[in-house]
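Exercise 3.2. Students should predict the tertiary structure of the chain below and write it as structure tokens, then compare their answer with the key that follows.

Predict this chain's 3D structure.
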Amino acid sequence: MTVEIDDVSIEDELRAQISAVAASGGEIEIIGGGSKRFYGESIEALPIDVSAHSGIIDYDPAELVITLRAGCKLAQVEALLAEQRQMFGFEPPCFGEDATIGGMVAAGLAGPRRAYAGSIRDFVLGVKLLDGRGQVLQFGGRVIKNVAGFDVSRFMVGALGTLGIILEVSIRVVPQYETEITLAYEHASADEHIRWVNGLGSEPYPVSASLWHDGRSHLRLSGSGQGVHQAMAQLGGDRIESDWSALKEQQLDFFESDEPLSRVSLPPTTPDLLSVKSQLIEWGGAQRWVCGELDIAAVRGQVAGAGGSLCAFRRHAPDVPRFHPLAAAMLTLQRNIKSSFDPAGIFNPGRLYPGL
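Answer key:
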């Protein structure tokens, strides 16, 4: 299906705003639905609402690709895909009904399926961008075989709007699974769960999500009915009803605390380094959530030594840097990329790191 919407006036208006701000030496905060505004450093800049730039440009279910304007509501797009028994393979969180496709790409966040299906970067085929010079740039395409500019379009994923305003994005979608079930197991410690869940990788089980919290492991199997039930017979465990969307949207009781929430990323087989009471582990051990006060600098040093990083995700004090410090060479590279797209530094300045 294709929906024709006149977007010229909106693009022209955004260009005019960018030119005026750049000429005055000002700065812009790009706002879509605002559902992920908490993510990253807080900034003070002129807010520009881009949510009106909405509409489906092209969607042919047989091609497994959808092209959208960035203001499209994420929940509505997922409902459209579900009508065709399709979905985003990376299971993106909304964090609110106003979440947009542009915010989904800019934040780069993914849900429980990410460790087994891939990240947003693995599904983005093309991006249309409005840069800091007021130019419209097109990277990639709408078909999977199109690789021109493919890596450049991936730059926008997780950039938090620091490179420009995302206007359109083409994303590969996947069919929904025939069958999904959840199995539960008792594992007293984080280390026991980590060893167990990584041991499953030696067999072709159709695992699509894992979770450990408070001594209990959950494992989601997704695939054909025959394959899932055969794996269930081999794996044992207790079959339970489990709402994985509550994990994706951080609506479990674990996330409802007023305490600071930290996200620790580590190689999945890394033993438990944190030894904290309130911890939730997913992605086969690669993503570990900690709710409570931490010595952020000390823990960052500890996890960096294991090849990981720590993000101060929610509810941290204003003086705590949100993202793990970059090595000097990587920070220089990121600043060079920023200056290529946004030479005047007007887009979401400092949202990621100083100078970005």
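Discussion points: The two ends are 38 Å apart (CA to CA). The chain has ten helices and 17 strands.
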